[in-house]
Amino acid sequence: MSPKKKPGMLKRGVQPTTIDNVAAKVQAAESAITQQFETKNVSLSNINLWEDQPRAFKLTIEDVIRGFILEDDEHYGDKSDELNNIISLALSIKELGLLYTPLGFALPGKCVQLLGGQRRTMASIFALFHISSSANDDGHLTHEVKVSPAPDLTLMDNERVAIKVFSRKPDELTLERMAVADNTQRSDLSIGDRLRWAMKFADMLHDRKHELTWRDLADTLALNRSQAFEWKKVIDNRHDQYIKKTIDLVIQESISFKQLTELSAEAVKNRKIMFDSWFKKKTNSGSIKKVSLGSTSNYSALKSLIMANVHGEQTQVFEKVDWEKPQQVKKAFNAFLTYWESNNG
Amino acid sequence: MSEFVYDRLKVLAISNHKGGVAKTTLSKLFSEYATRKGKRVLGIDIDPQCNFSARFVRMDDEGSPPPHPDFDPKDPAWDDLPYAPPGYWSIAEFFRLGYVEPYATDYENLSFIPAHKSELTRFLEEVKKSDIEDAVIGHMREMLSLEFYQDEFDLVIIDTPPQTSALTASAVRASTHLLIPTEMQEDSIAGMADMAQLWQSENKVRTDEKLILAGILPTKYDASSAAQRRTLESLEENAVLGDKLIKPVMRYLQTYANSSSTFANPRSLFDMHENTTARKEAEQFCDILYRRIFE
Fold first, then answer.
1. How far is A19 from chain B, CA to nearest CA, in Å?
2. CA of B15, closest CA in chain A: separation in Å?
3. pLDDT tens string B38-62
4. Would the pTM count as exceeding 0.90?
5. Among A307, B76, B96, B144, which residue's Cβ finds the most Cβ atoms within 10 Å?
6. Which domains, from first to last, does chain B contain?
């Protein structure tokens, strides 16, 4: 007799819904830990500005309190530009209030260490000391920049700004990401600042024997999946000499980020050729020799180009060309290239 | 709560509202493992069943610890206490008098605060009838943040009773890490949802250091059961729970029960031959837990 079959679902194990329910509760509990923050009104004197911020920023808190840049300051130019931006921001804060809440974490006592919102906080300080507001006849407030010669620092004790404060210091990697994410969410970080951050973050991960993932980049720099993969390729190849040079050029804004992603997508052996094609003068012995007219039909433009660049006897040679006939133009163009190469390399 | 911050002390609560999931066996094993790794460990038993205590302290038949060897009834310090201490120290005195002297054990680096069957049961009844529950919940953390505990120990391991009570809540409040053992059965798994809820609500009241889930350890696992195999597979494949699982799991092996009994010989599973299956398995899951707490 075959063994009697048992009713029910003994062999199926625990119901999937039970496991899903537990997973949902665990996830909820976990996310409550990572996002634990509250918005607090913190007096300006209790805010520690973040020194190692992702933005290449020269202006200091002393400059903001003083209200102007000292003429003998080594970064006078950069700082003046930055201060002008701070003043614009201060005027808008005075008019509209602080639209985006700065981000920080609680330090022992009442102090808060800023993670993001350095400029906004500096602007609030500038507004406190150096912007005066008055109502005109129709009741509208007008704001005026008047640099105070002796700012009263005790005013910072009473002036409070709302800050999103995390109750504990996030770990170093999270901290690094949150600071840059706070800026990218408002899309006012330059491509250079983002590149610098991504390379620094990748180095930090490397020191901890971790690898940069596309998710890190997507989440922090607000990129979509394919953009994140392009970025990852660039950052993964950051030690390649041509990629390195191109990154520097992107940071200096002398070349587009698109070119950088094209270069990093290229096979390693082809990068030199691509890089040289952008930046190096063609040499006699260079690998790129072939120049053709392609499908150009604007022969009169070619004539102008050639006639402007030939001298002496050669002028007569090219004057004899019938510029209406494609065959002759083509010949003339090749003759011009030979002439140009022999004279200019 | 912010004034009761630990310096570097780690406190592990081993907890699941469901009974019989090997909480006490794990408490014993991990106490021995961490001690062997050179950590100064304090075991605390808040379960009136006193099984964890009986392993390290010679409890009498009534479930009471023996007189403490250093106890001096004439010590003038006792004048400051609400009542004269009985001569032994248990977790009940820890709560009632705010004072306790841990017992030394056979292990050089392991000290112990035992439970007391009748006193602890009576104390819990008193708590239920009075309005001191909040004070009880905060008490263990307050005690462990004292300089003595911070200086003398690296790790505190608390074995909790299955039922929810002010004592369990006190243990969770005092902890830095939480280990949830679970059998591969419907009730135990469902019980984890309650633990997750407790974990979340605990972290809501914490402003400083959050309670960390050190892991979920499947226990009493029987690979010959198709249902258990499927359940473990489902947990492993789950995007959230998979990361939390500690592996290897603790299998259903008679050696665990034998080695954890009060008069086991050899004294510890870790004293058995190094090829003993249970010993090898325990060393691996204890190592993962150890690293999650200390690294």
1. 7
2. 15
3. 999 999 999 999 999 999 999 999 9
4. no
5. B144
6. 10-218 (3.40.50.300)
